[in-house]
Amino acid sequence: MIRIPGPSRRLGPLLDAFRARVGRDPDGAWFAPGRVNLIGEHTDYSGGFVLPLAIEHGVLAAAARRDDDRLRCWSLQEAEPADLRLDELGPGKVQGWAAYPAGVAWVLAQADGVELGGMDLVVDGEVPAGAGLSSSAALECATALALAELLGLQRAGAPDRLGPVELAAAARRAEVEAVGMPCGVMDQMISMLGQPGHALFLDTRTLEAEQLPLPLDESGLRLLVIDTRAPHRLVEGAYAERRAAIEAAARVLGVPELRDATPAMVEDAADELGDPGLRRARHVVRENARVLEAAALLRQAALDRVGRLLAASHASLRDDLEVSCPELDTAVAAATDSGALGARMTGAGFGGSALALVPAELEERVGAAVLAAFEVAGFRPPEVIGVRPAGGARRVA
User: Fold this and answer.
1) Integer CA distances (angstroms), 126 to 74, 88, 97, 147, 206, in order
2) Whole-angstrom Cα distance, residue 69 to residue 93?
3) Model's pTM, two decimal places?
């Protein structure tokens, strides 16, 4: 079972990489985590509820100011750096991985009274790309925190001009407007607001957030992430189609968003919604109810009773929203059959990762069963990762 001790062991190599590329020390280094969503999938863009947790897999960013108009970006995971003029930033103007930090810089430059200067940025990511663990939000939030401090928008020991919620909103705007991915706000919010030992119950309409204890050790439980390594299949177009269908269902029901609908309203409008509109709407409304129930169980320290909600969530994502895939279904079935209290896909779907809530004494057994099931099915070997709820974005040097 793979466990990640945190960003500290990667900090030295990142600082060395910065010096090698830039020729001097950075002004600082920042870390932002990826996330696992315990429950609440495809609800965040319809004003609904989510229950994610930050993990110690994340993105480190070392940055320094420049005295010209260049934004230079390097990634230790990408072969090609980016050397951009500040007036080249904006929607659709930067392609590839650098569109994410460039998009953040473009958004922050529009804050009142901000004069964006040149920056050198070197990043090191340990969130598997495409695994559904929000590598893009981690990159955005690490960049946002670095630039906000270097631009004087956020300073240690002083009132923040941009606090974590505002920076999460800026990071999300970068992904939606500059990169062109119509995501919700969950990923950026948990990356900025995560707390060790807690999940974040988030109302994505009001951005009201509640830190709920996630007592894994005290409950004798483990949370395993199964990176199926399945390539995302048509994820951008399919994600946009699901979002459009959910928004269309809200119009049929006459509500601002599906968060305002009830299960009875959805079933009563079955003929008007048609298929697959009925099933898309059914998933969102029932998933919101599952999140509310899971949050109530965490408040009661009844984590062991969340497993059945995970199972129901996966069935809904597979059958009603149709965003699962054979690898995800295999991971969920193998984990459940070998003793997990519950398992489900996590993230947008069409590939990526599943998560399983597992009694501590069955951790190795569940991991081995998943590996064996993938071998029998002829799939690439998955990576099984033990995760714990971790802290949010922060300065580390």
Assistant:
1) 15, 28, 14, 21, 31
2) 16
3) 0.93
